[in-house]
Amino acid sequence: MIRLLWTLLKVGLVVAAAVWLAQMPGNVELRLGDLVVEAPAGAPLVALLFVVLLAAFAYRSWLALRRAPQAMRFGRAGRRRERGYRALSLGMVAVAAGAADEARRRAREADRLLDGAPLTLLLAAQAAQLNGDDSAARKFFEAMVDEPETNLLGLRGLMAQADRAGDRAEALAIAARAQKERPGTPWVLEALFNLRTANGDWDGASAALEALAGRKLVRGEDLRRRRAVIAVERSRLAEERDDRAAALNHARTAWKLDPSMPAATARVARLEGAAGHGSRAEKILRDGWTKAAHPVLGETLAALWSRLTPAVRFTQGQRLLKGDTARPETRALLADMALAAGQQAEARKLVEPLAGEGAPARICRLMASIALGEGDTDGARSWLARARLAPGDPAWFCRACSAMSPEWSGACPHCGVFDSLEWRPPAPPAPGQAAAIAAIEQELETENAALVAGPSKTEAAREA
Ligand SMILES: [Zn+2]
Q1: CA distances from 345 to 210, 264, 308, 335, 354 (A)
Q2: How far is CA 204 from CA 209, 212, 238, in A?
């Protein structure tokens, strides 16, 4: 619009100038021999204006003609590039949709049209991966590493490949190279953290975590938890190399960061106890128990009191956990101690209220032990049979791979995922499995009943 107004203004000015010149008063006379031409005074100027305009038009036309081949060439290259980028985007879409053949075809097309532009390497690598051709993908990623624009992307591709192949050492070497070339790249730091924790390199993992924290990539609750888990593992490593001071220091750090973490509480209490701080250890265990009543704390307490007689241990336990007997975990722990001290009646008083319908396996086993201690073999058998049918006891299960671990560790021993172990009961069997298990359990129950009935029959036969 502005351009149009500007053009109209220019035309208007030229016309106005021409009219003004044509209307100038006076004459000009041009004599060529006998020929005399007479014209108004403005005519030569109008003619001059006309000549200038004509010359400008001629010059423009000549320029346009001279540039035509180049413009045509540019136009062709532009269209080619456009087709190349179109092939590239369609290829990326095909990769995302998992269309392997289409992705490969588009990758070739893009490579031909764009003369091997760096981004076509990425498409080629992804298409190769989609086609299951890992060695081709690797070559493309390596070519990307050589290009400054795609260097980091290439390293990321190579690292992911090594990780998928289970070659953690190779993945770690690539991540370290990426860190050297582009320090502080978020995914590189996160990869270094994950690979080092999976590898059990807890000092290295701590350095990677602090780098992540320094860039505010990990913060708040997540940062606190990660630091606590790492501190527990560093304490374990220090203890393994017999550096007790460092072991206790790391354990204290972990416990301060997360006092609700049973692994941290049990570790710091055990090390405090070993360092001669028995009452501090007891207090730590008591506080830890109120936050998360985990069996490992009961075991640590038992180890701390290993020099006491079972009867004294039970009295001490009652003293320490006074006021906490509403919780089933506390009752079970105290019942264990009572049983060890041979006080079946005390144990029964503690556990019986928990042994109703749907009692967990641990409680059923405790009831069996109490019955056995009281000389009631049949009762013990019946409780053991119930324990088999009862909901399973909690254990450490990995959130990532579901594998069970006998004890807690900072990274899953099966898949290496950091802080993935959770304390929970085993998952109930799938609906199909449930029926089969119920049938087997029914069989066991019948067998069990026969066993219980067995001796009395023999006795009856003997009597007869
Ligand atoms: Zn796992």
Answers
A1: 54, 35, 21, 10, 15
A2: 9, 12, 14
pLDDT value at position 89?
A: 86
Question: Where do runs of H (alpha helix) occur along 375-430?
Answer: 377-389
CA 414/CA 406 separation, integer angstroms: 12
Angle, in degrees to the nearest 10, between helices 220-240 and 262-274: 40
% of the chain exceeding 90 in pLDDT: 56
Tell how far the Cα of 413 is from the centroid of ligand 1, in angstroms.
7
Q: Identify residues whose C-beta is under 5 A from ligand 1, the ion.
A: 398, 400-401, 412, 414-415
- For residues 382 and 290, what is the distance between their CA atoms, to the nearest angstrom? 33
Cα→Cα distances 135→92, 121, 140, Å: 20, 14, 9
3-state secondary structure of 201: coil
Strand order in the sheet with 421-424: 404-405, 395-398, 421-424
pLDDT tens column, 271-315? 999 999 999 999 999 999 999 999 999 999 999 999 999 999 999
Tell me the residue ranges of DSSP E strands in 165-231. none
* Ligand 1 centroid to residue 354 C-alpha, Å: 33
Ligand 1 mean position to 462 CA, how many Å? 57
CB 247 within 8 A of CB 263: no
What CA–CA distance (Å, rounded) separates 438 from 269?
43
Number of separate helices (H) and strands (E) present in the chain? 20, 5
146 three-class SS:
helix
3-state DSSP call for residue 399?
Answer: coil
Residue 394 C-alpha to ligand 1 middle, in angstroms? 16
Give how far Cα 77 sits from Cα of 67, 68, 114, 154, 176, Å. Answer: 15, 14, 10, 28, 41
Contact 224, 209 (CB under 8 A): no
Is 392 strand, coil or helix? Answer: coil
